[in-house]
Amino acid sequence: MISRSILIVAVVCVAPVVAQSCYAENDGPGFNNAVSMGGPNPLLAVKFTAPSTLTVNGIEVFTGESTGANTVSLWSNDAGNNQPMASLGTGTWAMSSSNSWQGAALSAPVVIVGGATYWMVWGCQNGSQAAVDVASPTAVIQQYRGTFNGGATWNGPFSFANRPWKFRLQCAASLYQVNQVGASLDVNGVMTGGLTPAITTIGASTGTATIAGTVGQPWDIAYTVNDTLVPSGLITTAGQVVNLNFTAPSFAFAFGAAFANSLAPFSTAVALGGLTTFEAQLMVLDPTSPDAFWLSQAIQIN
Q: Which of 15, 122, 240, 267 is deepest in the core (most CB within 10 A)?
């Protein structure tokens, strides 16, 4: 029962939703009414680190005081130049002149990986309300850059206490946890995209399990046998998904939930050994995670 209680206290059970604000910076009601956006054809890029692996399907910023087409997009990071590298997905909307949270759905969902760096890029109207919060000791102060030529060149980077940018990421609720930088587990390279389970069929043969994550952190693997993966089973406060049936009689941790092993990536041969199915999910303790731990995808071997 000790191993079950670890999962119960670590997660919060929530009902599945179609979309939700899964990450935000400076998303309180306040805004700096004295700051407007410049132009022409500006793109503002705000740098952030994904708190966990998320499937983003929309972005909102706080703006108004103008009309016309706006864009929002997620860009990958050019670490060498500390600037946006390439657009991963874009949405467009006709803005309202009322100061409010506004935005658009992306043309296709974008999976961002926990611990990785991205840029939220807003294509705004010249003279519109800047998506800037009121300066305060609790505001998140980000690095940001700007361009007037579609990203061919970027100005900056800048970072000022009176420029805490306001944005929200909207996410589709994932049915299945996906692998992330902090915790990764697969068999024969099979990966879920969040909508279908990661199932590898090996029968009487052997497969190769690969384990990775935050090096040096304590880890263990929870598992069940002859069971099944549970879509949207338990969801943590940071949006990670537990897909194991932790009420199953076979539920256990491979090393007794002692978390005495320090993680070093490795691969190993696996076989069913007479079992019908085997289900597993890696858990890595890490104080830098919003949940204080990372979860891998859950795998099922048939």
A: 240
